[in-house]
Structures are given as structure tokens and as C-alpha cells.
Write a structure and sequence with these properties.
With 345 residues, the protein is mainly β. The chain has two domains: 159 residues, Immunoglobulin-like (Sandwich), CATH 2.60.40.10; 114 residues, Immunoglobulins (Immunoglobulin-like), CATH 2.60.40.10. The protein is built from two helices and 22 strands. The strands form five sheets. Strands 2, 4, 5, 7, 9 and 10 form a six-stranded mixed β-sheet that branches. Strands 11, 12, 17, 20 and 21 form a five-stranded antiparallel β-sheet that branches. A hairpin with a 2-residue loop joins β18 and β19. The longest helix is centred in the last third of the chain and has 37 residues. The protein starts with 37 loop residues before the first strand and ends with a helix.
């Protein structure tokens, strides 16, 4: 008996197509690198979050109970055939250091608050269309952060005589914090670095991160090695994307070295960021000579690059101190000159 329906959930959720639907990668865009698929991207971002790169990929906001916001998303059909896209919102969650997508149209609290002005869009080949999403937070909503996904879905019917129905969907994540006042701050610490050697010989560094803030984190970054054998340096090596930590969570981000390096010791410096929130840390590590995991090394916060605000404050304080010193010297000089003039008289 032929299989008549097979859901091929092309979720754009991993490294295969990070820009597809803006679900997992830092760059918004249409789905599929071949230009033969459907896509969705966020068009709007809050004015106060436009410096946050994540806010251009995902709907990220903080709303008081009873608030309503509107966000535009653009859907596209990059195929050579007409497509009818279904638009709906379904549940999302953060589990096991990943943003998880609920199957099908499974709802949660946030998805029931979110609607689109059209539930279906008929699209010509290579066409684009704008859709407005509305999030209405109930007045009795409890404080806290919630997650969901706005999906655009196309179903390709099976061929005559039976076959497979292909379901292709792409989406935009929603990270919504509910509460009064200003949004919770984003913050995290890099606690330790651990060197590993995999069975295939690849060298890996795991950085343990603690989300100490009030918002979820989507972590990216890089790592450099210095002060190695014969004073060698290596890198930078990119952090594998896809790690998401909910507030309070502790988890690891992974750096797989793209080249073989001596076992060490090395001074490893890792830089991580989630939107505008950035941290850096260092530790001295050594890779195991055989397959296995070395002892976790406590990371030291890297203060070699102070934030611009700290530098500005330092310059201002230096200027004030210098000006005060000059003023004191001038007053003392004036007093001496007056005293000398008095004696002459």
C-alpha cells in the first residue's frame, strides 16, 4: 500500500539553511540557497531594539499586560510554480539548549495571542507578499517570557495515482517577555572551557555558559588560540550556532577546530554574544592526545577590551581631574602674585 502523506518538515532550523525562515541563523532571508523554495522574513523591529541584530531576525519584545503590537513579515515564493501558503502560529519552547518547534499547529499561550491578517496567500512564481501579525497580550497575563513561531506552509499534493504529499514550512520565531516597566536585562557568564578530542581526531572546545539575565539567549561568536607551542597562534574558529538558553539555564556552546593544532598548552580566548550583549573569557587549555575530554578549566573574564561607556567615563574623569588640578594651580599662583604685590606696596 503506497504511503500517501509524508510531512517533510523543512523547518530551516539548523545549519543546513540558517537563513530560511530566520529560525536559527543570524541573517533574515528567503528559504533555500537554490532559489527554489518558499521563504519568510521579518520586516519590522522595535525602534528601541534596532541595534539588536536578533530583533531583525526574530520578533523580540517586552509588553505590559493589555498591550497590542503589529509586526510585518514578508513571504516569498521562489519556485517556478504557483504556491498557496497557509499562515498560522504554533508553539515554541526552549529545551536541551535549543529552540524547539512544536509539531503541526500545536498551540501554546503565546500562539493563541498571535494572529495574522491573512490565513492563506495565493502566490505567483517568484512573487512576494506582505502579511501583518498582531500580538494581543491579555490584561490578566502573568509575567514571564514565552515563545512561539509564525509559520508559512506550502503543501505539494501527491502525484496522480498516489505518492507523497510534501509539506514545506518556514517561520519566524517570537520571543515575548510580559511584565510592567522596562524589559528584563540580558546577561550571561562564561564559566569554564573544556578541551576534547573526538573519535575522528577533531579537536573541540566546550564553553559552559550561564544565562544570568531575564531574556533568552541565541549565542554566536568565535575563539582564538595563542601562546601555544613555539609561541604559535591559531584561529579564529567559529562557534557552532544553534545554542539557545532560557533565563537561568546553564549549557555549553561548541567550537570545532577547522584545522589540526598541537595539543598545547594554549591560551584560549572566546568571545560570545547574543544580540548586543557580549562577553569574552580566557583559559589555558590542553587537548587530550587520545580520544577523550580534558578537565574543565575555570574561565577568567577578559577585561582587555573595556566597553565604550567605561572608556568614555574614564576620559571624562581624567579631563575633570586635569581641569581641577589646573584650576587649583592657577588660584595658588594668583594668591602668590597678590601677596608679592602687597609686599611691594
Amino acid at each position: 500500500m503506497p504511503l500517501r502523506h509524508l510531512a517533510l518538515g523543512l523547518l530551516a532550523a539548523g545549519a543546513l539553511a540558517p537563513a530560511a525562515g530566520t529560525l536559527d541563523g543570524p541573517a533574515p532571508g528567503a528559504a533555500g540557497s537554490s532559489g527554489k523554495s518558499i521563504g519568510i522574513r521579518l520586516v519590522d523591529a522595535p525602534v528601541d531594539a534596532r541595534a539588536n541584530s536578533r530583533a531583525w531576525c526574530y520578533i523580540i519584545d517586552h509588553l505590559a499586560p493589555g498591550s497590542v503590537i503589529h509586526r510585518r513579515v514578508e513571504v516569498s515564493n521562489a519556485t517556478d510554480s504557483p504556491r498557496t501558503l497557509s499562515l498560522y502560529t504554533a508553539a515554541g519552547a526552549i529545551r536541551d539548549r535549543r529552540f524547539q518547534f512544536a509539531p503541526g499547529r500545536t498551540p501554546n499561550e503565546l500562539s493563541t495571542w498571535t494572529t495574522t491578517d491573512r490565513s492563506e496567500v495565493a502566490m505567483a512564481p517568484h512573487a512576494r507578499s506582505m502579511v501583518t501579525a498582531t500580538i494581543a497580550v491579555p490584561r490578566d497575563a502573568a509575567p514571564g517570557e514565552r515563545y512561539a513561531v509564525i509559520w508559512a506552509e506550502a503543501v505539494k499534493a501527491p502525484p496522480p495515482g498516489g505518492g507523497v504529499s510534501e509539506v514545506n514550512r518556514v517561520g519566524v520565531r517570537i520571543y515575548l517577555s510580559v511584565g510592567s516597566g522596562n524589559p528584563p536585562a540580558s546577561s550571561f557568564t562564561i564559566d569554564s572551557l573544556t578541551a576534547e578530542r573526538l573519535a575522528d581526531g577533531r579537536q573541540v572546545v566546550l564553553a559552559q555558559v550561564h544565562n544570568t539575565g531575564g531574556r533568552a539567549l541565541d549565542l554566536s561568536g568565535d575563539m582564538k588560540l595563542s601562546n601555544g607551542p613555539a609561541n604559535l597562534s591559531a584561529g579564529p574558529f567559529k562557534v557552532e550556532t544553534g545554542t539557545t538558553l532560557a533565563p537561568g539555564n546553564i549549557g555549553s556552546v561548541t567550537v570545532v577546530l577547522s584545522e589540526q593544532v598541537p595539543d598545547g598548552p594554549w591560551r584560549a580566548r572566546i568571545r560570545l554574544q547574543s544580540g548586543p550583549t557580549k562577553r569574552a573569557a580566557e583559559a589555558t587549555i590542553r587537548f587530550p592526545a587520545a580520544v577523550g575530554t580534558a578537565r574543565a578549566i575555570k574561565a577568567e573574564p577578559d577585561t582587555s577590551r573595556l566597553p565604550m561607556a567605561v572608556l568614555v567615563i574614564g576620559v571624562v574623569l581624567w579631563a575633570l581631574t586635569t581641569a581641577t588640578g589646573l584650576l587649583v594651580q592657577r588660584r595658588r599662583r594668583s594668591r602668590r602674585e597678590w601677596s608679592a604685590a602687597g609686599r611691594d606696596l
